[in-house]
Amino acid sequence: MYDLKNDEEVKEIINYFEKKSCKVYFKEILGINHLVVSNKKNTVYIKPYKHYDVISKFDINIFRYSINNEGIEKFRIEDITLATIYDTVQEVIESIEEYLNEENYFEFIKSNFETKENADDLKLEKYNIELKKHGYNTQILRKKLFFEEIEIIIFTKNKENLLNPNSSFILYINGNNKVEISSIIRMNKEFNIACLYNEEELNKFSIDKIENLFI
């Protein structure tokens, strides 16, 4: 593992965001040294890659808890290759800044789509009640936003010192009468819920597994 602090490209990123009053530091996660940039809203994890002695690529990562693997895993949301004169560190800075300034996903959906407090589906409403009882903010969405028109619970929870402060999830009951949970993310600058966490029988799913999602 090389020392990120000695690279000019990394120094440029650090200097820029320190002037913006962001927290900038290095953190080893899953054995990988990341440059971390954080403001009050979001946190971004940047992994530089070297080709010989020159940084040739930056990955922007998030981390999530996998229910199936019972552990934290890395998930790349964007990569920027410094392969041409048009790809510069400034592009990396702009991408980091964009992720830092993203709205809270839960509040964005609540403000821009028709949602309600309670589900018509009685099975889904049981989960909605349970989530609220444990301090989660929830909304019910019925719209062709992600897939066919069904009711979906969107939920989040305010917790301190999260790896991902902007953590929101959806929970729904699929056609096979199983619970599915996915995270809501922005991947390559597009709204996405493609990272499926789990599919499990209704009577086997517990609130403890949901608690583990907020890391």
Topology summary:
Elements: H1 8-19, E1 23-29, E2 32-38, E3 43-51, E4 54-66, E5 71-81, H2 89-100, H3 105-112, E6 115-116, H4 122-133, E7 137-142, E8 151-156, E9 168-173, E10 178-183, E11 185-187, E12 190-192, E13 196-201, H5 207-211
Antiparallel strand pairs: 1-2, 2-3, 3-4, 4-5, 6-7, 7-8, 8-9, 9-10, 10-13, 11-12
Helix pairs in contact: 1-2
Give a written overview of the molecule.
With 215 residues, the chain is α+β, with helices and mostly antiparallel strands. The protein has helices at 8-19, 89-100, 105-112, 122-133, 207-211, and strands at 23-29, 32-38, 43-51, 54-66, 71-81, 115-116, 137-142, 151-156, 168-173, 178-183, 185-187, 190-192, 196-201. Helix 1 packs parallel to helix 2 (89-100). It folds into 2 domains: 4-100, no CATH class; 105-211, no CATH class. The longest helix is centred in the first third of the chain and has 12 residues, at 8-19. The protein has a 6-stranded antiparallel β-sheet, with helices on both faces. Strands 1-2-3-4-5 form a 5-stranded antiparallel β-sheet, covered by helices on one side. Strands 11-12 form a two-stranded antiparallel ribbon.
Secondary-structure-based class equals alpha+beta
Number of domains: 2
Shape: elongated
Helix content: 10-25%
H/E element string? HEEEEEHHEHEEEEEEEH
- Mean pLDDT score, rounded? 82
Work out the number of β strands.
Answer: 13
Low-confidence runs: none
Could you tell me how far the N terminus lies from the C terminus, measured between alpha carbons in angstroms?
A: 25 Å
Gyration radius (Cα, Å) is 19 Å
Largest sheet: 6 strands, antiparallel
Number of separate helices: 5
Which strand order do you get reading across the main beta sheet?
6-7-8-9-10-13
Give the strand content.
35-45%
